[in-house]
Amino acid sequence: MNLQTKKINSANASVSGEILLEDLEKKLNKIATKISKTVKMDGFRKGKVPLNVVKSRYKENIEQDAQKEAVEEMLQLGLKELQIDAKDVIGDPIITEFDKKDTFISTTIKISLKPDFKLDNIDSYVPDVKLKQITNKQIEDRLNDIAKNKAPLIEAKKDKKLDKGDTANIDFKGFIDDKAFEGGEAKGFDLNIGSGQFIPGFEDALVGLKVGEEKDIDVSFPENYQAPNLAGKAAVFKVKLNKIQVKDQPKIDDELAKSLLPEEKEPSLVILKEKIREQLELESKTKLYNEELKEKLIENLNKGIDFDLPDLIVEQEMDLLFRNSLNILDPKELESLKSDPKKAQEKRNSFKEEAQKSVKITFIVDLLSKQENISVEDNEVLQTVYYESMMSGQNPKDMIEYYKKNNLFPALKMAMIEDKILVHLLDKKLGKNTKSEKPKEEKLLKKSKTEEK
């Protein structure tokens, strides 16, 4: 086989050799003999089909199987010579040369390996975490918002003009080209002004009306409106304001605390304010992490830690980034890439640096997850998909099936592990640990956000 091996670096290697045609022929005969013992063919008894007939009938498949067996044999011999354990090979090795000569096939196989590196002094890559102090005014403002949202609606005074934040009870009917359209009419409809529930311009046009007044509102449906028959079209809505409701004067006392802290044994306004402080601190920290520190940490890890990357994995990531970019290109640019292979290759190559960063961070996160003993269970991944589908108004079962069908769960799980590790490292720098967060605080946070909507 005249084997030649080369360890390019700690993450890449190659195996070259000559597959002799006479050896390949032996493999062909062996495979054909095995087939002839079981194959059924008209005119011959089972197990008695001549070898030449089998080789002729199944020539293409037999050749592929023989070549595959020969390449696999070369690969295993190469790994042994390189002293590489098969479990350290990442992805499928790639055949970069398969050139048939008179007596042999010149073959080269490229192999990617798990990078060998260490993560020492990881804290030095974590940016400083400094949280702003929560002020009493922030606490009072949040308390007022919560109380206001819980306050009941009452009918406004008769001379009041409709303003943002008020709830308008209206009758309306929509027309396109002077013709009423389906779904464009309602009576006694309650609309919170400023909620963005209606198409742009509709709610703003109602501001300033008094009870009993009528108005024609000119608006245009967005080009991407969900109903194709209405998208982009100009419409006129005839509207009558029946009633204006406003929030009653909110009451901020121990009774409010009792309604918000049902799990507390002795809820009080003092305890509620302390819970709000903790909630605001958590929000502040989450915002700082998501908008600034996580990306800084990733950049520090990428620039500060150096090791060899497996070329084949980087190439796969480049392919993925390139394919994803095609989905957001305008039709002209997409057509230009299709008609110009050189330009398409340049576009693909433009993702090399991003691909290298992505692959490197993936390996770093994988090692960190082992060092820090951080993992994400499968049920956590399912819960995330379930929650996200509910929030976006989609069917959770359909979404889960979509993730399964497209094999998206591994990538989502890896993303969740990465996020968990980043938060863990930042919390360590801050001197806290996310495991100490109280479930009650999270419940209060979700409850308050719901109420604010």
Overall description:
The protein is an alpha+beta fold. It folds into 3 domains: 4-112, Alpha-Beta Plaits; 152-247, Chitinase A, domain 3; 256-452, Trigger factor, C-terminal domain (Trigger factor, domain 2). 49% of the residues lie in helices and 17% in strands. It is built from 15 helices and 9 strands. It has helices spanning 21-36, 51-57, 59-82, 136-150, 202-206, 254-260, 269-304, 311-326, 331-339, 341-349, 352-371, 378-391, 396-405, 409-430, 439-452, and strands at residues 4-9, 12-20, 94-100, 104-112, 153-155, 167-176, 179-192, 214-220, 234-247. The strands form 2 sheets. Strands 5, 6, 7, 8 and 9 form a 5-stranded antiparallel beta sheet that branches. Strands 1-2-4-3 form a 4-stranded antiparallel beta sheet. The longest helix is centred in the middle third of the chain and has 36 residues, at 269-304. The chain is elongated and about 100 Å long. The termini are far apart. Residues 433-453 have low confidence and may be disordered.
What descriptors fit this protein?
453 residues, alpha+beta, Alpha-Beta Plaits, Chitinase A, domain 3, Trigger factor, domain 2, 3 domains, 5-stranded antiparallel β-sheet, 4-stranded antiparallel β-sheet, 15 helices, 49% helix, elongated, disordered C terminus, Trig_fac, cell cycle
Order of helices and strands: EEHHHEEHEEEHEEHHHHHHHHHH
Give the number of helices. Answer: 15
Question: What is Rg?
Answer: 33 Å
Q: What's the architecture of the largest domain in CATH terms?
A: Orthogonal Bundle
Oligomer: single chain
Query: What's the helical proportion of residues?
Result: 40-55%
